[in-house]
Design a protein that fits this description.
GO molecular function, one term: GTPase activity
Pfam families: GTP1_OBG (PF01018), MMR_HSR1 (PF01926)
Strand content: 5-15%
Keywords: Coiled coil, GTP-binding, Nucleotide-binding
Oligomer: single chain
Protein name: GTP binding protein
Structural class: alpha/beta
Number of helices: 13
CATH topology of one domain: Rossmann fold
Bound molecules: guanosine-5'-triphosphate, magnesium ion
Radius of gyration: 37 Å
Largest sheet: 7 strands, mixed
GO cellular component, one term: mitochondrion
Helix content: 25-40%
Length: 658
């Protein structure tokens, strides 16, 4: 009888849930009945508990390619053919490790610390080749910087390492020396024996001369034999009980492999040599063995991935050693080792416009109001822990939108603090039909293929986590935040206009940018110079509605005096105006200072736009400014690229003329 439900240790399922979802006794803390809200809260809790570990933007991975498969030693057998030709297949090539920069991944959390490609299969009888090793593909976000890490970096250290490796290879050198000596001695013996035999054939009795086989049996010292056996095991797969010295081709192959190995051209089974030498890799041919450095600013075509570490060479089967002298080679070569390299991956997002601001300034709200990206928004600091990207599209009829959002026609539309994705576009409803989704869209939402409007401009924006004091000294998650700012071509400060000191916010943001640029050894004022504008957010807090609300709240139950209301409205608007003017003056001062310091060109003044990201007020004016900025930056980048191309062409011509 099934008694699971009666077991004394059986507990209700809620006992097993994580603590955050335990039913609370306090009615105020009871879970909200709205499932969407509950889900959002659980997700935020989980993310906070994970402390950002679900977003990984720097990672050190050890990448190992697969070993090549050994060649097979076999002979063909069939009815009436007792001793067929050699029939061992070649081994399979070891799996390689490739790298792909893909727009569909946003961070490195899917990667482990080690990425390993599969080994190649061994060759088998009947000329069957071994299987290729399985390749491994590392997918990284576009904008990732890849650096090869060498434990030994200076020349002396490399020399030291080579010396160590040489020591490890000592036995191979020894074996080679023995082989050479042995071959020489054998040659001398052979010449002597041949001379004696020829003379005996001419002048005397040939039977007086002993057979060559008898002479050839000069014993080799045991330690020499050991070295040879070790070497052969490392390089060859041998047929059981094979007498390899009887194969002239074997000695030649052995000699070739050995000299190649000693001149470092082939890989060597790692089990034999601890400090293996580096294999030749694709980029080594051009860049005489400099550590690899890649900056993946563009997506890699999936059919042309970047080869990071090639797999080990396959071993050759015994038919490869078939010669006239040796009709049944009883050996095959082993596959080469794969390589093992350590890489450091660092994601530096590439957005055209990067938002920089203190925590709670409303950066995420702004991104949500301009694009279809939906970073979480909440009224506490550090809501955003990793960068979010969005695309803003401007249409020919002057509206703008992210790809999934409805055009912003109304200024009243509010953004809630829960996920902005309309339910009909959310993951739960992914199977809703298009007609069903359309029912939930405004009547004027453009249909696919609408001819009246076309896309005019599209640019990407990055919402970055808030900067705090001393972010540049890596306080908190400082550098992790600043890293993503590094590559945005234009930066925009987002400040909370309703805060007591918006100018102070700009002052501390500037300081952090300056310090970070200095630490990263960028050009003086590199990041500050990239600031193109200031968004004075939360301007709605100075609007009439807010003021009235405040007066009504102060009055409580009592009737509100209309004059007081009027006065409050006027005062609030005046406050807002004063703060904005102060901010603008401060920004003019900053601009002037930077132009004098030579970090800002006169063509790049800093604009200031007051908006309300939450209520989407004055957002179109901001979009126009951003569009102008983006166009200017693109034109500048194109100009720079052209100049660089011309300079390169000029240099080539100069070299040719020389
Ligand atoms: N009244 C008003 N509130 C706003 C506006 N923009 C943002 N907020 C509110 O400010 C709070 C913080 O907004 P976020 O967008 O999360 O701020 P953030 O800069 O992304 O903050 P971090 O992610 O912590 O750096 C939220 O409660 C928003 O609703 C605005 O224009 N007007
Ligand atoms: Mg945020």
């Amino acid at each position: 009888m099934l008694r699971t439900s009666l077991r004394p240790w059986h507990r209700p399922a809620c006992w097993l849930r994580p603590y955050s979802t335990l039913p609370s006794l306090d009615p105020a803390l009871a879970p909200t009945p709205d499932p969407a809200e509950r889900k959002a809260k659980a997700k935020a809790d989980w993310k906070r508990r994970a402390q950002g570990s679900n977003f990984v933007d720097t990672l050190r991975v050890t990448v190992a390619s697969g070993k090549g498969g050994s060649g097979g030693v076999a002979f063909h057998r069939e009815k009436f053919v007792r001793r067929g030709p050699p029939a061992g297949g070649n081994g399979g090539v070891g799996g390689s490790v490739y790298l792909v920069a893909s727009p569909s991944v946003s961070n490195l959390s899917h990667l482990g610390r080690t990425v390993r490609a599969g080994p190649g299969g061994a060759g088998r009888g009947s000329w069957l080749g071994g299987a290729r090793g399985e390749d491994a593909i590392i997918r990284v976000p576009v904008g990732t910087v890849v650096r090869e890490i060498r434990q030994k970096s200076t020349d002396e250290e490399v020399l030291e390492q080579e010396k160590e490796e040489r020591k490890e290879l000592e036995w191979a050198y020894e074996a080679n020396r023995i082989r050479m000596e042995e071959a020489q001695a054998r040659e001398i013996r052979w010449q002597k024996w041949k001379k004696r035999r020829d003379q005996a054939e001419k002048f005397g009795d040939p039977d007086d001369v002993e057979a060559w086989e008898e002479l050839d049996e000069e014993p080799i010292a045991q330690h020499k034999l050991d070295a040879l056996v070790k070497l052969r095991k490392a390089l060859f797969v041998m047929y059981p009980g094979a007498e390899l010295d009887g194969h002239p081709g074997f000695l030649r192959t052995e000699h070739q492999l050995l000299s190649k190995m000693l001149s470092r051209e082939i890989d060597m089974p790692a089990s034999r040599v601890k400090g293996r030498f580096r294999r030749n890799r694709a980029w080594d041919e051009e860049e005489d063995d400099a550590p690899l450095y890649l900056d993946l600013v563009k997506p890699t075509p999936i059919d042309d991935p970047i080869l990071l570490v090639p797999g080990g060479q396959p071993g050759l089967g015994n038919p490869s050693f078939l010669t006239h002298e040796d009709r049944s080679p009883k050996y095959a070569t082993r596959g080469g080792e794969g390589d093992r390299v350590i890489f450091e991956l660092e994601v530096k997002s590439i957005g055209e416009v990067g938002l920089v601001g203190l925590p709670n300034a409303g950066k995420s709200t702004l991104l949500r109001s301009l694009t279809s990206s939906a970073p979480r928004v909440a009224s506490y600091a550090f809501t955003t822990l990793n960068p979010h990207h969005g695309t803003c599209i401007i249409w020919s009829d002057g509206t703008f939108s992210g790809p999934r959002a409805a055009p912003h026609s109304s200024d009243e539309a509010e953004i809630s603090d829960t996920p902005s994705t309309p339910l009909y576009f959310s993951a739960e409803k992914q199977h809703a039909s298009r007609a069903e989704r359309r029912k939930h869209l405004p009547a004027d939402f453009p249909r696919r293929g609408d001819s009246e409007r076309s896309e005019v401009l599209r640019f990407t924006m990055t919402d970055n986590p808030g900067l705090v004091k001393d972010s540049s000294l890596n306080v908190g998650l400082g550098h992790a935040f600043l890293r993503h700012i590094e590559r945005c071509s234009a930066l925009v400060y987002v400040v909370d206009l309703s805060s007591p000191d918006p100018c102070g916010a700009i002052r501390s943001l500037r300081k952090e940018l300056r310090e970070y640029a200095r630490m990263k050894e960028m050009r003086e004022g590199e990041l500050e110079g990239r600031i193109r504008g200031v968004v004075a957010n939360k301007a709605d807090l100075f609007g009439p509605a807010e003021a009235e609300e405040q007066v009504e709240m102060d009055a409580g139950e009592a009737d509100v005096d209309p004059a007081a209301l009027e006065e409050a409205r006027r005062k609030s608007a005046e406050d807002g105006r004063r703060k904005l003017v102060e901010l603008m003056e401060y920004v003019r001062g900053v601009e002037k200072e930077e132009m004098e310091a030579g970090i800002r060109s006169p063509e790049d003044p800093i604009w200031v736009v007051p908006i309300s990201a939450k209520k989407r007020q004055n957002v179109p004016a901001l979009v126009n400014k951003l569009a102008e900025t983006v166009k200017k930056e693109r034109a500048r980048a194109a100009e720079q690229a052209k100049a660089a191309e011309e300079a390169e062409a000029g240099e080539e011509k100069y070299e040719e003329d020389d």
